[in-house]
Design a protein that fits this description.
The complex is a heterodimer of chains A (about 200) and B (about 350). Chain A has about 200 residues and is of the alpha/beta class. Chain A has nine helices and five strands. Chain B has about 350 residues and is an alpha/beta fold. Classes of the chains: A alpha/beta (about 200), B alpha/beta (about 350).
Chain lengths: ~200, ~350
């Protein structure tokens, strides 16, 4: 491992604004972002090619399981990555990270204090972004789209017994999984749930 | 009927992964079994087992749909974050399989005379690996899973070294189909619906099922932390009772059509479930939600899982683990006292 203070960071995040902002912030505290990936198809290769010291990944990314598998399989890998907590043993930071929706995997043998600064920066950016996201979403969409999204959210809240935040997350994940735009997914959710309620009231 | 339970908490958050075997959770919510036991449950869809584990460990969720080995791995601290967990209910039995790409499957089909004879299939698979000049790339989803151990077990039984003769990689379940069809991987071992979907879309062929490899075994469980269980014994009991009834409902033949309607709702499996509704797999994966010895946490399988973790090096040889840990994780005793 290099002795320089500069660490190689791999960022995996589907939110382009957050990704860019975090890259800038990590750069400002003297680290190098080796690679930033939206939903990637070959994570194995990116990790092997870029030798990151630390991987920062959106908690909601399905690639987390892939990283954890790589960590256990990497007997031949010169830089095994371990789960953040294994090295840190810092429940407070872990808890803050989980609540902010960020997780991290770290090359074995890295000094905890250097990692802590990166984690704190990532957590701060994820926290800030989640409060901004709702606002961004509402200004980005046309009025008609916004109405559809609001209606779908309301129906999901009623059907799932959940709060507004989770209803919005459900819509967002559906849009990601189906590869469709949010208003289209919202329209479909309204149709499906209207049909379901109709069946129940029969 | 006995007196209603004095619930310590009645609003619960439960995490799940969009697999066929999350059915008991969906049924318990949609068919009112949670309500019957005074529970108001929000089901939260997650994208990874890692997040399920973390959110349960740190109390963001009260409980979750988990792969059977996860509570044990978490109690042992194998994935870094050591949080004692337990399960008092197995949600499902079996349901995994190994699928090969269409190309590899056709090559193997030319060699295999009897698909029911495991040893013969294994021998021919080994012959094929030696003949092709390329190690097959086989994917699994998560290191602490029946699928991962089953794949290793089957390979080893047939004299194939999982670390040398094949290339083991990890891929998220949602990417399995596309990676199989575009040749990034040559096969995978996962749970349903991903095997049936590959067969339906004719991008893969079935090598063998988890049930064929191991016989009946618990697949998914309801996991909670030890401390949650200690602090919410009545709510835990209500949860297990509600889910047990949901398991019975989900298994009943006459409910199958409705079950798929419920699963295909957008917050659950969404469109993947509607594809499967009318599909009858040519292979029986023996996936069950209820029946003789399906729902009781299985101590024997727990001990077996502990051995698999040791065998593939997840537990270092220097780390001596007493088998009594199995009893603290797979709580057959709680199940016995709650489910009459």
């Amino acid at each position: 491992m290099s002795n320089s203070k500069r660490l190689n960071v791999l960022l995996i995040d589907d939110e382009p604004e957050r990704l860019k902002a975090l890259e800038k912030a990590l750069h400002a505290i003297g680290h190098h972002v080796v690679c930033q990936l939206p939903n990637t198809s070959d994570l194995n290769k990116h990790v092997e090619d870029n030798h990151p010291d630390i991987v920062i990944i959106d908690m909601d990314s399905p690639n987390r399981d892939t990283l954890e598998s790589m960590a256990t399989m990497s007997k031949n890998n010169p830089r095994p990555i371990v789960f953040f907590a294994e090295q840190q043993n810092d429940r407070k930071t872990m808890s803050d990270a989980i609540n902010a929706g960020v997780s991290a995997y770290i090359a074995d043998g890295l000094q905890p204090d250097r990692v802590k600064a990166i984690m704190d920066t990532a957590i701060a950016h994820f926290d800030a972004h989640s409060s901004l996201r709702a606002e961004l979403e509402s200004t980005k969409n046309q009025l008609a789209d916004r109405k559809v999204i609001e209606k779908a959210k309301g129906m999901l809240m009623k059907h799932q017994g959940c709060d507004e935040k989770q209803a919005f997350e459900t819509l967002r994940k559906l849009a990601m999984d189906r590869g469709q735009k949010l208003p289209n997914v919202a329209q479909n959710v309204i149709e499906v749930l209207e049909l379901t309620n109709g069946l129940q009231n029969r | 009927m006995s007196a209603p339970l004095a619930l310590e908490k009645n609003s619960l958050k439960i995490g799940f992964i969009a697999l066929l075997d999350c059915a008991p959770l969906v049924v318990a919510r949609e068919k009112g079994f949670f309500e019957k036991y005074g529970l108001n449950v929000v089901l939260c869809k997650e994208s990874s087992w890692a997040s399920i584990r973390d959110k349960v460990s740190f109390g963001l969720y009260d409980a979750a749909h988990m792969l059977a080995p996860i509570p044990l791995a978490s109690t042992l601290g194998l994935n870094g974050n050591k949080t004692p967990m337990l399960t008092a209910l197995s949600l499902s039995q079996n349901g995994t399989a190994i699928t090969l790409s269409q190309e590899l499957y056709l090559q193997l089909s030319e060699l295999v005379a009897d698909w029911d004879h495991q040893q013969h299939v294994g021998e021919k698979f080994k012959t094929l690996i030696n003949r092709n000049n390329k190690k097959p790339v086989i994917a699994t989803v998560y290191p602490y899973s029946n699928h991962h151990y089953q794949l290793r077990y089957w390979l080893e039984e047939n004299g194939i070294n999982a670390d040398k003769d094949i290339q083991l990689v990890a891929v998220p379940p949602t990417k399995m189909l596309s990676n199989l069809s575009n040749g990034v991987i040559d096969g995978y071992c996962v749970g349903e619906p991903w095997n049936s979907l590959a067969l339906m879309e004719q991008i893969g062929g079935l090598l063998t099922t988890g049930h064929t490899i191991w016989g009946d075994h618990m697949e998914k469980v309801l996991g909670v932390t030890q401390s949650w269980a200690d602090n919410h014994p009545q709510s835990h009991q209500a949860l297990i009772k509600a889910l047990y009834e949901a398991c019975q409902w989900a298994e009943a033949d006459q409910n199958r059509t409705e079950l798929f309607e419920l699963l295909s709702l957008p917050p659950y499996l969404d469109q993947a479930a509607s594809k499967l509704a009318n599909y009858h797999s040519p292979y029986n994966m023996q996936q069950r939600f209820h029946g003789e010895s399906v729902n009781a946490p299985d101590l024997a399988h727990g001990s077996f899982l502990l051995k698999q973790m040791q065998k593939c090096g997840q537990i270092p040889a220097s780390h001596v683990v007493d088998d009594s840990i199995v009893k603290s994780v797979y709580r057959h005793d709680l199940y016995k006292s709650w489910i009459a």
